[in-house]
Amino acid sequence: MKIIKNRISVLLIVLLCACAQEKKNTIISVKNTLEFERSFETVEIDKAFLNVDNLSHIGIKDINTGELQVTQLVDNDGDGTMDVILFQPKIASKSVAKFEVVTITEAEQPKAAELCYSRFVPERTDDYTWENDKVAFRVYGPTAQKMIEDSIPGGTLSSGVDAWLKRVEYPIINKWYKKETETDGSYHIDSGEGLDDFHVGASRGVGGIAVKIDTTYYTAKNFINWHTITTGPLRTSFYLEYENWDAAGNTITESKVISLDLGQNFSKFNVSLDGVKNISAGLTLHERDGEVSGNNEEGWLSYWQPHADSELGTAIIASKDYFNDFETYNSDIKDLSNAYAHLKVIDNKVVYYAGFGWKKSGQFASEKAWEDYIVTFSKCVNNPLEISLNK
After folding, report:
1. Where does the secretion signal sit in this chain (predicted)?
2. Which of 33, 178, 265, 370 has a CA that sits 20 to 30 A from residue 151's CA?
3. 26-108 to CATH, choices 1.10.10.10, 1.10.760.10, 2.60.40.1180, 3.40.50.2300
C-alpha cells in the first residue's frame, strides 16, 4: 500500500509539473551581435513562428522592465487575417533581451501615435505618398503619365522616387496636399515644417531602379496599380505594380512592396522582377555639384550635395548578398545623371534600402554625420537581430 501511495505521489508531481509547463508563456529572445545599442529596428514575428492562430490578443512584455511593448499587427497577404506582429525593442550592445508573449485585452494594449502613414492621392493627379517621423516620399501614377503623353500641363512621367523634405516629427502628407490643392499656399514653400523642392523628373530620385544594357540605362514608366498594406505606429507598407517594360529587347516585369518604419530615414524596397539578373538603384545627381561616396564591402552608396540654403544626403544600402558595386553616371541629358548601386537579382527578387537626410531638419549636421548613420545602418542590415523562442 505504501508503494502504491508513493507511486501516486510521484505521478501527481509529474502531472503538476506538466501543467506548470503548459501554462508557461512563450519567451522571445532578441540578440544583438553588434557593439552598439540598437533601437528603431522592427522585429517581425509570424503567427506560425509563435504557433498561434490569432494575434489579436497577443501582447509583448519586456521581462526585465515588465513593460508592454507598442505593437502593430499586419495582414501581409490581404486575406483579412493578421499575419505578423511588429515591435521595436531597445537592445544593448552585444546582448540578449527577452520578451514574454502574453494575452491582453484591447484596453491593455499600449497606445502610440500613428506616425507611419501612406495613401493614394487622387486629388493631386494620382501620387502615392508615404512618411514617418523623419522623412516623406512619393511616386507617380498612370494619370500623371497620361497627362504628359497627352501634352496636358501638370503631369509627371517618372518611375523615380521623390523626397519630401520635412523637419517635424508629426504627419504632414494630408496637411501639405490640402495646402496645395485647397488654398493659395504651396508645399513648395517652407513655412516651418519643410517643403517639396526636390526635383525628380526622369531621374531615379531616391532609389528608383533601372536596367543597364551595355552603356545605356532603361527604366519603367509610372506605376499602374497599388494597394495599401498597413499604416500605424511602427510601419507603413504598400504594393506597387508596373506595366511590363522594355530594356533593349528584354521584357521586364516589375512589382514591389515598399515599407517605412518608425525612426528610420530609409524606406525598404522589396522588388519582384522577371526578365533580368541585375538591376541598378539610382540617386539623382541634380547639378552634379555634390560628392558621391560608397563602400562595396559594406554595401552602400551615398550622395551629399548642396541643396538650396542647406545640404542634403541621399543613399542606397543593401546586404552583401545583393550589393555588387556602384557607379557615377554622368549625362548631358537633363535628369539622366545618377549614381547607381548595382544589385543582384536573387530568385527574382532584390531587397535594398533608399532614403535621405536633410541638414535643415536638424538630424545631420554634416556629411560625416550622414555617412556615420549610413555605416551604422548598413551594419544592422548585414547583421540583423537574431530572434529565437524559448518556452
Report:
1. 1-20
2. 178
3. 2.60.40.1180
Q: Are 312 and 370 in contact (CB under 8 A)?
A: no
Q: Which three cell numbers stand for residue 17?
A: 509539473
What 3-state DSSP class applies to 108?
helix
Backbone angles phi, psi at 175, to 5 degrees: -65, -45
Give the CATH fold of the 117-382 domain: Beta-galactosidase; Chain A, domain 5 (2.70.98)
Using the 8-state DSSP alphabet, how is residue 187 labeled?
T
- How close are the terminal C-alpha atoms of the chain, in Å? 38
In the chain, list all ranges with CATH 2.60.40.1180. Answer: 26-108
Q: Find out whether 317 and 250 touch, Cβ atoms under 8 Å.
A: no
Q: How far is CA 21 from the centre of its chain?
A: 39
- Tell me the per-residue pLDDT of 73-103, one tens digit each, with 9 for 90 and over: 999 999 999 999 999 999 999 999 999 999 9
Q: Which three cell numbers stand for residue 175?
A: 496637411
Contact 319, 304 (CB under 8 A): no
Contact (Cβ atoms closer than 8 angstroms) between residue 266 and residue 315: yes
